[in-house]
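Whiteboard transcription, Tuesday session. T.W. wrote the structure tokens on the left side:
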């Protein structure tokens, strides 16, 4: 319940930001157009660290709220040295729009967030805004790396990393459980990522013309519209999905 409350706080921070941003959630590349915060250019700025850091810098989101009380990865902890004014590592500290030292990359050091968000690019952009759609998942407890999905009738088999630390956040050691935040600002707990607790379930349109269950931690290769949810912690970004790098544990 505490984790759900925190995730709801993350959703609310996105919504508050959107109210002053034409209903869009943060696009760092659209904000730092003069490159006074970081040297990355344009959409390359739209990765997880910058998205969350904008919310923190503007007071929409406390640093501590970014780490789940059920966190299982010892390399993920609250970012205690956040600079809320004139961050010295910015290109121009006086004109900085966020603290660029905030990091999410637990594969290279200490990461400051437990939560994944949907990829803000291309045909997924309509999801990255305050749409009030109760079927669009935006944020969640991060999940395991999913290698593939097999669908046979109503049966869905997910091939996911069996050693993922994300299994330890909620539930048992071999199954994933977690909270999801949706675009109508509600949070829902599910006992897996095939939406066992939801009816109807989020779906996407396949290249064969059918609708299949949308696995939120998997970028479905047969997604005809390229608009399915794909949640992750992203360390790079750009104009297309191929420019985003997701990290897993």
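and on the right, the sequence the group agreed on:
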């Amino acid at each position: 319940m505490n984790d759900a409350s925190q995730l709801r706080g993350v959703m609310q921070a996105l919504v508050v930001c959107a109210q002053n941003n034409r209903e869009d959630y943060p696009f760092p590349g659209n904000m730092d157009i003069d490159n006074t915060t970081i040297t990355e250019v344009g959409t390359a700025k739209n990765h997880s660290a910058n998205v969350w850091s904008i919310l923190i810098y503007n007071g929409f989101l406390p640093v501590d709220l970014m780490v789940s009380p059920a966190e299982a990865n010892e390399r993920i902890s609250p970012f205690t040295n956040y600079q809320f004014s004139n961050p010295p590592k910015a290109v121009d500290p006086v004109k900085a729009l966020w603290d660029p030292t905030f990091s999410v990359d637990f594969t290279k050091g200490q990461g400051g967030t437990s939560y994944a968000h949907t990829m803000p690019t291309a045909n997924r952009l309509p999801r990255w805004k305050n749409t009030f759609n109760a079927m669009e998942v935006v944020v969640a407890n991060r999940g395991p790396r999913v290698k593939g999905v097999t669908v046979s009738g109503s049966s869905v088999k997910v091939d996911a990393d069996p050693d993922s630390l994300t299994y330890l956040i909620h539930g048992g050691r071999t199954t994933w459980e977690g909270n999801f935040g949706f675009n109508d600002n509600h949070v829902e707990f599910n006992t897996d990522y095939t939406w066992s607790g939801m009816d109807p379930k989020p779906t996407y349109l396949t290249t064969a013309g059918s609708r299949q269950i949308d696995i939120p931690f998997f970028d479905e290769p047969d997604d005809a519209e390229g608009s399915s949810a794909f949640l992750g912690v992203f360390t790079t970004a750009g104009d297309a999905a191929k420019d985003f790098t997701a990290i897993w544990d």
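Someone added at the bottom: Residues 1-143+162-197+226-249 form one domain.
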